[in-house]
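Key idea: predict the complex, not the pieces.
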Amino acid sequence: MNYRMSKKGKLLIEILPDKCDFCGCCVGVCPEDAIELKEVAIEIIDDRCTNCSKCVWACPIDVIKFNKEGVLKSPATSYI
Amino acid sequence: MQKNDYDLIIVGAGPAGTTAARFAAEQGVSVLVLEKDRDVGYPVRCGEAIRRRGIEEFIEPDDKWICAYIDKFSMIAPNGVKSTIEYIEKALILERRIFDYELAKLASKAGAEIITRCYVNGLLLDNGKVTGVKYVQAGEEKTATAKIVIAADGVESRVGRWAGLETHTHIKNMESCVQVTASTPGIELDTCRFYFGKDIAPEGYLWIFPKGKDISNIGLGVSATMGKTTSALTYLNRFMENNFPNSSITSIVSGGVPCVTTLKKMTAPGIMLVGDAAHQVNPLSGGGITSGMVGGKLAGTIAGKSIKQNKPDLIYSYESEWHERMGKRHETYDRIKDGFYKFSDETFNNLAEMYNKLPYEKRTIGRLFTTALINKPSLLLDVAKVFIM
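Result:
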């Protein structure tokens, strides 16, 4: 499988961008400066993330998930 | 042709950023403000309540950005008992969209240039000194240089990190907040309500601030550590179901508030931090508009002076000026917060009951805290300091 890699093994943190309000709460608590937030776009900078999960806890609206299987490079979403 | 060399560049056009811009521009230095979003003042991530006295230093109150005038605060204990305080010195509920815009206009009038939809993604550094910013505008990578950069980039506070400052908020000090603007038939237009309790908003509080007739901002903040089990949104949904099951919700916003003492280091060579980015929020209330504007005024004034007099080291006086004006007080508020937010439901209930036994004319915020002391005498010294100041 083609998993995204964090600073510490497989990346286990996943942001669901379609549900994100882009408030920046997760960016504020991230000790590694591993989240990039533009106007209405957000992503994890894989090689900085340590899977510490602080962003998961801090998200006010449950949009960041801890995915213990690992995050795939191309998420298997089926919009078609 | 867009200029790319300024005396001062400010990242973020919230109240702190535009206030800094205005006080610097008034001294005749060239100022550029870069804002990530497409408009100033939007989206609004704020409860929008403010003390009238706090704002008058910066702008004349105007009905076009005031939604409601507040005469009373009501505190609701976990068992539902309400204690009401007459708030003689009025508080206001803002329309932040218009308010922020008015502040930006004042900065602009003073000569600052404000550009929206500019995403700052790095700093220009020369031997450790900040000399400008990298940004993206309409898909194009650009740079602009400046003698000083002021970071007013809010809770995210990334700009300061790039300059080597430790700006991230410890998880236990971050309040995860969510707010709806919703129909609230029958809610008083002159009263701010605050709800406490571990089932409502653990290590935080829930607010109802009236925005107009039968419409309110209903929001809450909980310590981000609570999110390990239950998110802020879950708490708010629960409250709405129990209290306003038929309310129609017009908007929902989330946000994070750093409720902690100000950063010890908010300057580095060529850079100053203001507002939420510097953790200038009142740690007890979570209110950050006025304190951010105070930070902006101090930083903007000092930056302007530093540039005019060609004295780069002048920016370091900002930390001590902030500490004198606000920082010391926030340290006290932070200690009170640690005591207050850890109160058990029973303590809150007792507090409300004792307070309501006081004759009506004696019910003041000071008295409320004095009553709280009976439950936690170690807060006495801290509370005394707040009310003596």
